[in-house]
Design a protein that fits this description.
By secondary structure, this protein is an alpha+beta fold. It contains three helices and 13 strands, in the order βαβββαββββββαβββ.
Length: 218
């Protein structure tokens, strides 16, 4: 079963504004493949039962409610963009992508929190369905492709990435993830889609053939 990252709802909500992505360093680049070293990050997650699409929508609404002010506002936030003060709590800047992973009969939907926040400084969610969690740094192999993310395209790109990993002697450490970064009105030929597979750290020999990136390299 494929895990899904569905960023379209977030980017639709953000309109055409720039949305930050988690920071990473490119360890190895052989287009269209990359190995990225992601820094540790904080994620806000919620567990939703039901069909994948409906769970993604429900989870997105719950998490969006948290970042747009449904929290205790226990920490002070500077009134500078992109963080603003919300009437009922603190507003947290949006990031991409939104993550969705299977958890038995349920789905765990997650937002990555902006890098300036920690577990100590993030406001506590008012909704008990929202859980804050630290995710350790990890190495992720990626293949980027345009078009749609139908089952055929996902299967084709996943198999291509898995073949590349095997040829490079890299060991997968997680299930394939589908990542979508563009709003639904983007023409398919211009969409940024990715298949991502976490790998064991050090398996690509950590050859630094790339450079530091903010997570927005296109």
């Amino acid at each position: 079963m494929f895990r899904l990252i569905a960023a379209t709802g977030l980017l639709s909500l953000a309109g055409c504004a720039s949305v930050a992505e988690p920071a990473y360093r490119v360890v190895l680049a052989e287009a269209p493949f990359e190995v990225r070293a992601y820094q540790p990050m904080i994620v806000a997650e919620t567990r939703i039962e039901g069909e994948r699409g409906a769970a993604a929508n429900a989870g997105f609404r719950i998490l969006a409610d948290y970042i747009f002010g449904n929290n205790t506002a226990k920490a002070e936030i500077a009134m500078t963009a992109p963080v603003t003060q919300a009437q009922d709590g603190q507003e947290i800047a949006m990031t991409a992508p939104v993550m969705q992973a299977p958890a038995g009969s349920a789905w765990v939907v997650g937002f990555v929190m902006p890098a300036e926040w920690t577990l100590d400084t993030l406001p506590t969610p008012n909704d008990p369905r929202v859980v804050l969690r630290r995710q350790d740094g990890r190495h992720v192999a990626v293949v980027r492709f345009a078009g749609t993310t139908g089952e055929g395209a996902v299967r084709r790109e996943t198999e291509a990435l898995e073949r590349w990993l095997a040829a490079k002697g890299m060991t997968p450490a997680g299930a394939p993830v589908v990542a979508r970064y563009d709003p639904p009105w983007t023409l398919p030929m211009f969409r940024r889609n990715e298949i991502q597979i976490e790998i064991l750290q050090g398996s690509p020999a950590d050859r630094d053939q790339g450079s530091s990136a903010s997570g927005t390299s296109r």
